[in-house]
Amino acid sequence: MPAGGKVIITCAVTGAAHTPTMSPYLPITPEQIAEEAIGAAKAGAAIVHFHARIPEDGRPTPDPDVYAPAIYRVRRESNVIINITTSGGPKATVEDRVAAALRFKPELASLNMGSLSPYGRQRILDKFELWQHPWEQELFMGAPSRVYPNTEEIITRTIKEVGAGGTRFECECYDVGHLYNVAYFAEMGLLTPPFIIQTVFGFSGGIGLDADNITHMRNVADRLFGADYRWSVLAPGKHQFRLCTMGATMGSNVRVGLEDNLYLEKGKLARSNAEQVARMRDILTLLSFDIATPDEARQMLALNGQARDNG
């Protein structure tokens, strides 16, 4: 549960699921991603979650050299906590997936706690007549046969290699079984409290968007971890603000951003990540929640605040 009664807002700036055709505001280049991350921090995000994209066509990439300009600029210009992904496409090697986190040694890295297979993502093809780049169509056409592996071996190796640099892990749990996986790795001594639990609702192949599921995930986490965890909620698309708000009233932190949702409200594309952060901050403030600063979030999540290489 959030410590000290304050809510941490995380902003997932670009992700790997949305494509350039889907929104002209999706940040692609390192300069755009850095600008969006800094803007989100100014709007109230204590954490910014990083993926990288090939500047020429927006294709997701694990290449640390592509990450570098954005990471270094954000570190120079902001005190925000940087969270680097360790996920990757179905063909990505473990070396690919951990490369950026190993190089930049962020305070926080995301860690998917189980394998996933997306269902129905190919239906997105019907929503657009023209695509900017061939890889976008290929991405969705291949969805029915795609698996994103997160085996015990992959998770163990990620924890050992990335954790050796002082990075702590945000455990992304897309279903109830993933919470038990966190408990398993804790029993093995690989994950230490307070456990940082990001419950993910409504993504294909994972737990659904029902309000009862939020309560269920929280109750299971309570049984497994007691007071030794910090909880956050994320949900896709139109469900983002409503489920994050529901989670906050139940004791969670929240995540917004263009990785999860391209819209600010029904029929209106978000023009920036900062718009979404500001909207979430305003909702929480109206409900009398205090918003955690980056330094307060560091204390709540037991991050080590290690010295940062600013390039």
TrEMBL record:
It comes from the Bacteria. Keywords: Metal-binding, Transferase, Zinc. Its cofactor is Zn(2+). GO terms for molecular function: 3-keto-5-aminohexanoate cleavage activity; metal ion binding. InterPro entries: Aldolase_TIM, BKACE. Signal peptide: none annotated. This is 3-keto-5-aminohexanoate cleavage protein. It comes from Rhizobium loti. The lineage of its organism: Bacteria, Pseudomonadati, Pseudomonadota, Alphaproteobacteria, Hyphomicrobiales.
